[in-house]
Write a structure and sequence with these properties.
By secondary structure, this protein is α/β, with parallel strands linked by helices. It folds into two domains: 238 residues, Spore Coat Polysaccharide Biosynthesis Protein SpsA, Chain A, CATH 3.90.550; 105 residues, no CATH class. It is 36% helix and 16% strand. The chain is built from 14 helices and 14 strands. An eight-stranded mixed beta sheet has the order 2-5-4-3-6-11-8-13, sandwiched between helices. The relative contact order is 0.16. It comes from Paragemmobacter ruber.
Length: 351
């Protein structure tokens, strides 16, 4: 599946289900795992569009990956890069493109420390790995953020989220977790710091990342294994900031394990200080939830509703309408019951 087809279909290369808004960053995939050999992450062309003289050593650095369908970044990524820069991060913007001959409009990226253009292929993990291979001095940073463009924001909880990251003694942090397949973290936003920046096992993990041709390979080899690799192989201390335990303290949330928190629990996340909303939720709403109130909630929690709307309009203009996945009313009631049980409301509601 190529990037354009993926964007139109609304399919997602990773289990965080957050790629309905952009290209899948794979090229020429056969559609079945194992049919095509993965490529070295440096096989795709990469060009430096702009580079500052600022060194990474001792700084907070963000590797931000975005798919550029035409010659301009979408409103959401531009707003997020601006917020990251304003928060003191040196941002390396990695633009994945289908055509390396395209001239990208860099308007709105004045604060970015570096801007890279890379041939579309291999999904987010390959882009991150290629950037690390291209700029090994990234490992001298104090803290390294890995972020992609499947999220809109930030909301007012962003500053507090950064405070929690900076105050944490964990070596690896992510925002949300999932129990699909097996316990893992969702890879749209995660951080390495402390011992995570000097671990040889962590560097080995990234040096072994390949430009996979199918999303199932990316899921199985990298996203699902990421938390396990950090804990079991690198022996790092890990933390999930908006874990189920954080969202539902001292409550039984086991019935929610099969759900994607960024979609099924988006409102619970936002009201708990989570600083983003998934693009897929607003653009595709794959589970057909009642989200008509999202603008009010986003505004209440400090988000820019105009930018959110502009982003969705531009996605649909450049990549077509997302594929709809209607879910019946019974599924929505079932989810409500699960959340009610987790919050201890089941008895009161008679569910």
């Amino acid at each position: 599946m190529n990037g354009i087809n993926a964007a139109i279909s609304g399919e997602s290369p990773l289990t965080d289900r957050g790629r309905a808004d952009r290209g899948d960053r794979s090229q020429g995939a056969s559609g079945l795992s194992g049919e095509v050999e993965p490529l070295d992450v440096c096989a795709q062309a990469m060009e430096v569009l702009r580079s500052s003289e600022v060194a990474f050593e001792g700084k907070e650095v963000c590797l931000f990956v975005t798919f550029v369908a035409g010659n301009q970044l979408l409103p959401g990524p531009l707003a997020l890069v601006k917020a990251l820069v304003a928060s003191g991060l040196s941002v390396v913007v990695c633009c994945a493109v289908n055509d390396m001959n395209v001239t990208i409009d860099l308007t709105g990226l004045d604060g970015a420390a570096h801007i890279l253009k890379r041939e579309n292929g291999g999904y987010d993990f390959a882009v991150w790995a290629a950037a690390l291979a291209r700029m090994p001095d990234l490992w001298s940073a104090k803290r390294l953020f890995f972020v992609n463009d499947s999220i809109l924001g930030p909301l007012s909880g962003f500053d507090r989220t950064l405070e929690r990251i900076r105050a944490s003694d964990a070596d690896f942090l992510a925002l949300t977790e999932s129990f699909e397949y097996r316990h893992h973290v969702q890879s749209y936003f995660f951080v390495l710091q402390n011992d995570g920046m000097s671990s040889e096992q962590v560097r080995t993990f990234w040096s072994e990342v390949k430009a996979e041709q199918t999303k199932i390979d990316v899921i199985q080899k990298y996203e699902i294994r990421l938390l396990e690799q950090m804990r079991e192989t690198a022996h790092l201390k890990t933390e999930v900031l908006f874990s189920y335990d954080f969202l539902f303290p001292q409550m039984d949330w086991s019935s929610l394990k099969g759900k994607n928190p960024t979609l099924h629990l988006w409102e619970q996340l936002v009201t708990s200080g989570f600083p983003f909303v998934k693009v897929e939720l607003i653009n595709a709403n794959p589970h057909n939830f009642d989200i008509a109130h999202w603008p009010r909630l986003v505004k209440r929690y400090g988000g820019d509703v105009e930018i959110f709307n502009q982003h969705i309009v531009m996605i649909r203009k450049t990549r077509g309408l997302p594929r709809q996945h209607p879910v019946g009313w019974r599924s929505r009631i079932t989810l409500g019951r699960m959340i009610a049980r987790a919050k201890g409301w089941a008895r009161r509601w008679g569910v």
